[in-house]
Structures are given as structure tokens and as C-alpha cells.
Task: inverse folding
């Protein structure tokens, strides 16, 4: 079942997009990562041009992070002050990333830059996860217990402008979260990812935040970074496709909720090793696609706007004539779906408790 | 060091899985690095 994307100007299979975003959503829910570093390569494999895949996945991440952080807001597991400091760095990092994106797009090298960036990021994370996962399995077999240091001090902790973060119970330089935000924002803008896979380890090992505050704060930061990336991509390149965003958001929100439920009942150590193998496999597939596959030269097809259906015509007109409004609309659209999903989950959970109480 | 080299075959036999993963990852990184080098040139 094919559907034509009016902005990306390609046809994609609805079922493939739904199922892939659902599977990536389940993995996100299971491992607490955004899933953008898997979904964007999948979109590229499905035929969506990299420039469009990056922008639309950023919009999808916005919806899932809003959904997740609303749940954490309701549980009061969020450090706003630390989150806002990371966002300050994130804003500058995102602007820097968009400038870099514009430069490579200008010289016609953006597709290969995106492919290389994904290949290396997947290879690094996959290798690190595989080594860590196998080490954990090995230790569990040999029944070895290791004591971990609570907090390691790096040069970054000696920076000036120290302040108190009451919720995290930390006294740290404001530059630490700002520098981390800068790196995350830069990578997010180029690759269309939330950056949780960098942010979460940085929050644990460099900032030293309490574990219970990390997922909520990470998702809170991701909201701002992905919102800025979405608006800038919509305004600069007109690359947000609402039909693709709708398919991605629906699939991944359902997947994330399922993944979080599954994660409550299984041990994830061995699954982590499997995820590492999956990441490495996606990385090598991108390497094959970038280095060895024959690329057919795409014909430039001029699409007659009159032949599109009314919805597609409306989306194209909106994107061409009022790009900022279109970008803001796509953000409101993603945020609404995300908040709605969080409240539906809360409602269903309350309903289930009520039902089980009655049954008991 | 020579003692280590002498014992290497038996160590490899002992840790077949670890050796396999190490070789696999080395090949993986080799492909990526060589591919990037060729692409850049």
C-alpha cells in the first residue's frame, strides 16, 4: 500500500513505515533511547532522501519526547534547572549544526556526510554496547561483583560559574551542562536525532545526576533541541512532510508505550547485546550503501500540483507560502499527539487498576 | 612478551568467542575506515 509524500516527492509503503516506527518505538521504550539513530537510516533505506529523513525524524522525536517527558512531569522526576542549562548550549549547538548542514548542502555533499556520520556513530555505539554487554554477561556467569566509583572528576568540573542544582543535589559549573548541550545540539541538527545516547551517559558519568532524574531531564532537553531542528529545517529547506510525520509519530508512540511495558518485566542485559549487533548491522548496511552500491541517477520529476489530492495540495501550499507557520504547525501537531498519548496511557492505566480492583 | 606470543594459540583456543568478536569488530572497522578513505579520495 503506497502513499505519495507531497513534500519529499517519493512514494513509500504505509505498512513498512508503521511497522518500522513501531519496532524502533519498542526498542526506544526498552532501552530508553530516542531511536532516531535507527529510524533515520531505515527511512533512507525505504527511499526517503536523507535531507527529508533527518528533518521528519526530528519532528517525530519531538512527539515521542513530549509524550515521555509528560509522563515524567506527572511523576515529578525532572530537573528543570539542569535541563534549561543544557538547552542553552543546545540552542547554540543546533544553530551551529544547521550552518554546517547548509554548508555541506551547498557543496552537494550533505547525503554522504549524513551517511558517514550515521555509520561512525552506529559503529562506535554498537562496539561500545557489544563490549559492555558481553562483559556484563561474562561477569554474571563468573559471578563477579565490581564496585563502581560514585563520581569521577574530569577537567570539565574545574570550570568557573559554579551553581547549585537543588533537585539533583549538585554544585557544579554552569559550563558543564552548556558544553554537553552544545555537542548534543550540533549532532541533532546534522543527523535528525534527539541525542539521548550522548546525553544520558554524559548526565550519568560527567554531570553525576541521580539516575531517577535522567530520563525525564534528557527528554525535556530533547523537546527543545528537536523543536528548533524542526523549525529550522522547515524554514530553510521546506523539508517537513506532515503525512510522513503522522505515520512516524503514530507508529513510534504506540511502540514506545509497548516497549516500556515489556521492559518492566524482562532482563535487558542480553537484549542490549542483541541491540548492539543490530546497530552494527545497520552501520554496515549504510557503509555498503554509501561505498559499494550502484546509485541510479534520480530523474528530476516535475510534479504537477494539480494532479495531487486536495490534502497533498494543501500541505505543499502551506509549506511553500508560510514555512514558519508550517513548521510551528508541525510542532504543535507533534506535541499534541505526544501529550495525548501520555494522557491516554494514564487513563488506560487507571482503568486497568479499577478493573483489577473490581475483579479482586 | 615472547611468553605471551608462545601462549597465544592456546589463549585463542580458550577464548574462541572473544577472539571471534575481536576479529569481527576489527574487520568491521577496517571496512568502514578503508571505505571512508576511498570515498574521500
Result:
Amino acid at each position: 500500500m503506497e502513499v505519495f509524500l507531497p513534500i519529499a516527492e517519493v512514494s513509500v509503503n504505509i505498512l513498512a513505515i508503521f511497522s518500522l516506527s513501531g519496532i524502533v518505538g519498542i526498542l526506544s521504550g526498552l532501552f530508553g533511547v530516542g531511536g532516531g539513530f535507527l529510524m533515520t537510516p531505515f527511512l533512507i533505506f525505504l527511499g526517503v532522501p536523507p535531507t527529508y529523513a533527518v528533518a521528519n525524524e526530528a519532528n517525530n522525536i519531538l512527539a515521542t519526547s513530549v509524550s515521555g517527558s509528560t509522563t515524567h512531569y506527572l511523576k515529578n522526576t525532572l530537573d528543570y534547572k539542569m535541563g534549561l542549562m543544557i538547552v542553552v548550549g543546545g540552542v547554540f549547538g543546533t544553530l551551529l549544526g544547521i550552518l554546517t548542514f547548509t554548508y555541506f548542502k551547498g557543496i552537494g555533499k550533505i547525503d554522504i556526510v549524513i551517511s558517514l556520520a550515521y555509520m561512525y556513530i552506529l559503529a562506535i555505539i554498537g562496539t561500545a554496547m557489544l563490549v559492555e554487554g558481553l562483559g556484563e554477561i561474562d561477569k554474571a556467569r563468573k559471578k563477579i561483583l565490581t564496585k563502581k566509583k560514585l563520581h569521577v572528576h574530569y577537567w570539565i568540573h574545574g570550570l568557573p560559574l559554579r551553581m547549585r542544582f537543588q533537585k539533583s543535589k549538585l554544585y557544579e559549573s554552569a559550563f558543564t551542562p552548556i558544553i554537553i548541550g552544545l555537542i548534543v545540539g550540533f549532532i541533532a541538527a546534522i543527523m535528525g536525532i534527539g541525542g539521548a545516547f550522548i546525553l544520558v551517559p554524559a548526565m550519568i558519568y560527567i554531570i553525576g545526576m541521580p539516575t531517577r532524574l535522567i530520563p525525564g531531564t534528557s527528554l525535556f532537553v530533547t523537546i527543545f533541541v528537536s523543536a528548533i531542528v524542526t523549525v529550522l529545517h522547515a524554514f530553510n529547506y521546506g523539508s517537513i512532510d506532515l503525512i510522513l510525520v503522522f505515520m512516524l509519530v503514530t507508529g513510534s508512540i504506540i511502540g514506545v508505550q509497548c516497549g516500556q511495558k515489556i521492559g518492566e518485566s524482562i532482563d535487558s542485559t542480553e537484549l542490549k547485546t542483541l541491540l548492539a549487533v543490530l546497530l552494527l548491522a545497520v552501520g554496515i548496511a549504510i557503509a555498503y550503501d554509501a561505498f559499494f552500491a550502484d546509485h541510479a541517477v534520480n530523474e528530476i520529476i516535475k510534479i504537477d500540483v494539480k494532479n495531487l489530492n486536495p490534502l497533498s495540495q494543501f500541505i505543499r501550499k502551506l509549506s511553500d507560502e508560510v514555512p514558519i507557520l508550517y513548521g510551528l504547525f508541525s510542532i504543535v501537531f507533534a506535541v499534541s499527539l505526544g501529550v495525548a498519548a501520555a494522557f491516554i496511557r494514564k487513563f488506560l492505566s487507571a482503568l486497568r487498576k479499577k478493573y483489577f480492583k473490581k475483579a479482586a | 612478551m615472547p611468553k605471551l606470543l608462545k601462549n597465544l594459540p592456546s589463549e585463542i583456543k580458550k577464548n574462541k568467542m572473544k577472539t571471534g568478536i575481536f576479529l569481527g569488530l576489527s574487520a568491521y572497522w577496517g571496512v568502514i575506515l578503508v571505505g571512508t578513505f576511498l570515498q574521500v579520495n
About this structure: The radius of gyration of chain B is 15 Å. Chain B has a mean pLDDT of 75.
